[in-house]
C-alpha cells in the first residue's frame, strides 16, 4: 500500500468492535431521549462503539434526527467537523430490541424516570447479557439498591448521573449502591475518564448531590412566578446576571424536561418529606398540558425548531 493510501478507518475511526486493554469497548444505551442522545454523542465522540435502543421505530427515528441536528449545530459553532460528524454517526447502531445489546461491556439505562420501567428493563437484561457486563443507570433520584436486590449481579450495578447537555457538562456523579463492588466503581471511573468526564463519588441517597441541590432552586423560581413577583424572563435574567448563572432556573427546567423535573420532585418529596420539594402547581399544570419545555417546543418559554427561545410564555 502506498504511503498516501488512506483507509476509511484512518479518517473516520474504526467501525469494528475490537478489544481494548481496559475491556470497555462496546457500550449500550437504553432510551434515547435528551440524555440518551447526549450520551450516544459523547461516547461515540470518544471513539467507542455504541448501540442505542429505543422502544419503537418512531422514537428511534426521532432520536437519530435530533442527534444529527445537534451535530449540525456543533458544526455551525465550529466545535465539530463534517468528518467528525460522519465518524460519530458511524459508531452508533440504532436498535429496537434489547437482544441486540447481548455483547456489550457496559449498559447505560437512560429511560424515563419511572422505577417500575427501569426495574423491568434491568431484570430482562440480567437474563440476556454476559455475566461480566456492568449495569449503569442515569437515574436522578431513584434507588438502584432496590433494583439490585432483584437481579443476579447486585455488585455490578452503579449509578452514573450525567447532566444535560451531556457532551458539554464535564461532570458525572458515580453513585455507589449498597452492594456495588469496588471493582465496579473502578470500571465506571475508568469509563468516565475515557469519555472525558470528571467523576465525584457519592452514596445512594435521593437526588444525590446535584439534583437534590438544584431542585429546590427550580421550585422556588416557579413559586416566585406563581406569586406574580416577576415574569419568567425577568426571574431568569435576575439569576443569570445576579449570580453569574449560565442559564436561569426556569430556562434550566425547560432544558431538563418538565416531566422529568416533576418526577424528581415527587420522589424527593416522598422520600425526604421536606416541603421545599413539593412541586409548584405551575409545573403540574404545564406537565398536564404536555408542555414539557424545550423537547416539546413549549414550557416556561416557546422554542423554535432549533431549540432557541422565541418568546416568554408566562
Ligand atoms: P426523556 O423523556 O427525554 O427520554 C426518555 C426516553 O426513554 C424516551 O425517548 C422514551 O421513548 C425512552 N423509553 C421509555 N421506555 C423505554 C423502553 N422500554 N425501552 C427503550 N426506551 C424507552 O428523558 P431524559 O431527560 O433523557 O431522562 C432519562 C433519565 O436520565 C431519567 O432517569 C432522568 O432522571 C435522568 N436524567 C435526566 C436529566 C435531564 O436534565 N433531563 C439529567 C440527569 C439525569
Notable characteristics:
314 residues; alpha/beta; Rossmann fold; N-(1-d-carboxylethyl)-l-norvaline Dehydrogenase, domain 2; 2 domains; eight-stranded mixed sheet; two-stranded antiparallel ribbon; 12 helices; 15% strand; globular; binds nicotinamide-adenine-dinucleotide
How would you characterize this protein structure?
This protein is of the alpha/beta class and 314 residues long. The chain has two domains: 8-203, Rossmann fold (3-Layer(aba) Sandwich), CATH 3.40.50; 210-312, N-(1-d-carboxylethyl)-l-norvaline Dehydrogenase, domain 2. Helix content is 44%, strand content 15%. The chain has twelve helices and ten strands. The strands form two sheets. It has an eight-stranded mixed β-sheet with strand order 3-2-1-4-5-6-7-8, with helices on both faces. Strands 9-10 form a two-stranded antiparallel ribbon. α6 links the parallel β5 (134-137) and β6 (157-162). α8 packs across α10. The radius of gyration is 20 Å and the shape is globular. The model is unreliable at 1-19 (pLDDT under 50). Nicotinamide-adenine-dinucleotide binds at residues 30-36, 53-55, 59, 110-113, 117, 121, 138-140, 161, 163-164, 256-257, 260, 295.
SSE order, as H and E? HEHEHHEEHEHEEHEHHHHHEE
- From the helix content, strand content and strand pairing, which structural class follows? alpha/beta
Distance between the termini: 65 Å
Bound molecules: nicotinamide-adenine-dinucleotide
Overall pLDDT level: 92
Which fold does the CATH topology of the largest domain refer to?
Rossmann fold
Which consecutive residue ranges, at least 5 long each, have pLDDT under 50?
1-19
Query: Would you identify the CATH H-level superfamily of the largest domain?
Result: NAD(P)-binding Rossmann-like Domain
Determine the fraction of residues in helical runs and give it as a percent range.
40-55%
Lateral arrangement of strands in the main beta sheet: 3-2-1-4-5-6-7-8
What summary fits the major beta sheet? 8 strands, mixed
Shape: globular
Corresponding CATH architecture of the largest domain: 3-Layer(aba) Sandwich
Strand tally is 10
Q: What does the radius of gyration come to?
A: 20 Å
CATH class term of the largest domain: Alpha Beta
Amino acid at each position: 500500500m502506498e504511503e498516501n493510501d488512506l483507509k476509511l478507518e484512518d479518517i473516520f475511526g474504526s467501525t469494528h468492535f475490537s478489544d481494548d486493554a481496559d475491556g470497555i469497548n462496546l457500550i449500550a444505551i437504553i432510551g434515547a431521549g435528551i440524555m440518551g442522545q447526549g450520551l450516544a454523542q459523547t461516547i461515540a465522540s470518544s471513539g467507542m462503539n455504541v448501540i442505542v435502543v429505543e422502544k419503537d421505530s418512531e422514537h428511534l427515528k426521532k432520536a437519530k434526527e435530533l442527534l444529527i441536528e445537534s451535530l449540525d449545530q456543533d458544526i455551525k459553532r465550529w466545535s465539530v467537523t463534517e468528518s467528525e460528524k460522519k465518524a460519530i454517526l458511524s459508531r452508533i447502531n440504532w436498535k429496537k430490541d434489547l437482544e441486540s445489546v447481548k455483547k456489550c461491556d457496559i449498559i447505560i439505562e437512560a429511560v424515563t424516570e419511572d422505577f417500575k420501567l427501569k426495574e423491568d428493563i434491568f431484570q430482562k437484561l440480567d437474563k440476556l447479557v454476559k455475566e461480566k457486563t456492568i449495569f449503569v443507570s442515569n437515574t436522578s433520584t431513584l434507588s438502584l439498591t432496590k433494583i439490585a436486590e432483584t437481579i443476579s449481579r447486585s455488585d455490578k450495578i452503579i449509578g452514573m448521573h450525567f447532566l444535560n447537555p451531556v457532551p458539554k457538562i464535564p461532570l458525572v456523579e458515580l453513585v455507589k449502591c449498597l452492594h456495588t463492588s469496588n471493582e465496579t466503581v473502578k470500571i465506571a471511573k475508568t469509563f468516565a475518564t475515557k469519555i472525558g468526564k470528571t467523576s465525584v463519588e457519592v452514596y445512594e441517597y435521593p437526588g444525590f448531590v446535584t439534583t437534590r441541590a438544584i431542585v429546590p432552586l427550580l421550585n422556588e423560581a416557579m413559586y416566585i412566578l406563581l406569586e406574580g413577583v416577576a415574569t419568567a424572563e425577568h426571574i431568569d435574567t435576575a439569576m443569570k446576571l445576579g449570580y453569574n448563572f449560565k442559564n436561569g432556573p426556569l430556562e434550566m427546567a425547560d432544558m431538563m424536561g418538565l416531566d422529568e423535573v416533576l418526577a424528581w420532585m415527587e420522589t424527593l418529596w416522598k422520600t425526604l418529606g421536606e416541603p421545599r420539594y413539593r412541586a409548584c402547581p405551575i409545573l403540574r399544570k404545564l406537565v398536564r398540558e404536555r408542555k414539557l419545555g424545550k423537547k416539546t417546543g413549549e414550557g416556561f418559554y416557546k422554542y423554535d425548531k432549533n431549540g432557541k427561545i422565541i418568546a416568554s410564555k408566562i
